[in-house]
Amino acid sequence: MKIAILPGDGIGPEIVEQAVRVLDVLDEKFEMETAPVGGAGYEAHGHPLPEGTLKLAKEADAVLFGAVGDWKYDKLDRPLRPEQAILGLRKNLNLFANLRPAILYPELAGASTLKPEVVSGLDILIIRELTGDIYFGQPRGVRTAPDGAFKGEREGFDTMRYAEPEIRRIAHVAFQAARKRGKRLTSVDKANVLETFQFWKDIVTDVHKEYQDVALDHMYVDNAAMQLVRAPKKFDVIVTGNMFGDILSDAAAMLTGSIGMLPSASLDANNKGLYEPSHGSAPDIAGKGVANPLATILSAAMMLRFSLNKAEQADRIEAAVKAVLAQGLRTPDIYEEGTTKVGTVEMGDAVVQALSRH
Ligand SMILES: NC(=O)c1ccc[n+]([C@@H]2O[C@H](COP(=O)([O-])OP(=O)(O)OC[C@H]3O[C@@H](n4cnc5c(N)ncnc54)[C@H](O)[C@@H]3O)[C@@H](O)[C@H]2O)c1
Ligand SMILES: CC(C)[C@H](C(=O)O)[C@@H](O)C(=O)O
Ligand SMILES: [Mg+2]
């Protein structure tokens, strides 16, 4: 089985290195090939998603991705910016279903900025549509306003759109995931204002007819953001569009103690996937050896479960992460008094050692 390793920028290489070490000790015969992506792709080949990198991602059985982006590339033309690499991979590989599980490990109850009783026992799954919405809608750009109150002035514009099959396929993924868990699905929209999301709500309601064993409710995105910090445990599975999912999943990350704890899987219709932490390249801490590698290590576990058919190995990695947290080891983002502060590599070491015991 072949895994494409795309470390990217900032903390990407530091955290991916630890996840690769974890995969290496599993005693499986994975073929791993590394390629540059994001700013690193731009530096090496003049493009954030070099042809060779895309080819490797396409032919591999799964992709392990770090993060892309750095402020120094923010002035480049948009097609050359590092973020286009991850957007291009999602689109080219048809990775329309993004699963972001927000789980609070009991040991981290005190690391969250929310009260322990609000978050303890948290286990929710955010399913974000990943290849449509305002992220990819055309037309977009900056132009002279053709009409309206600001006619003749410069304006920026994007297009929000969702086709019926796009909504149907992500709804099916969400209902099926809910069926395997608590059988409750919340569809998050902005149907009170946006045509696109009234349409979304109508289609999700229609798909629900095939999943009568799952309880469906609808919630506006502003309320969902509030409920996520007020009573997050009331959710089971959330399904939403690309942009709302981006925002809500970062909010949900803090329920788990840190964004450094939130893994993700981006899947196509056949469970081929790209696996990455939900966070970015964290340029503010890059190169300091303090980034939390656990979201990436847990993403590697999701890769084993969803794309490589190695559920037992995934369980082993998750058990090893739990063991390391129980030992009291913490990177600075999840550190609290009474625990032991470690860096990225020591955290990787600890997971590798725990694996040999599990
Ligand atoms: N999928 C991706 O590759 C991805 C995702 C999000 C942001 N980005 C890019 O990353 C760059 C930085 O964006 P940002 O600062 O808004 O978001 P970010 O997620 O990179 O960082 C936000 C904050 O969280 C902290 N953080 C993130 N990951 C951490 C980890 N593993 N351990 C400890 N702390 C961690 C950072 O230090 C920072 O303070 C931008 O160029 C952005 O476009 C890329
Ligand atoms: C880097 C950016 C394009 C990306 C997104 O907006 O999808 C990131 O924020 C994420 O959550 O994966
Ligand atoms: Mg994001």
From TrEMBL:
Short name of any one Pfam family annotated for the protein: Iso_dh
Chain sites annotated for binding Mg(2+): 222, 246, 250
GO BP annotations listed: L-leucine biosynthetic process
Keywords: Amino-acid biosynthesis, Branched-chain amino acid biosynthesis, Cytoplasm, Leucine biosynthesis, Magnesium, Manganese, Metal-binding, NAD, Oxidoreductase
Cofactor binding description: Binds 1 Mg(2+) or Mn(2+) ion per subunit.
EC number: 1.1.1.85
Cofactor(s) named in the record: Mn(2+); Mg(2+)
Name recorded for this polypeptide: 3-isopropylmalate dehydrogenase
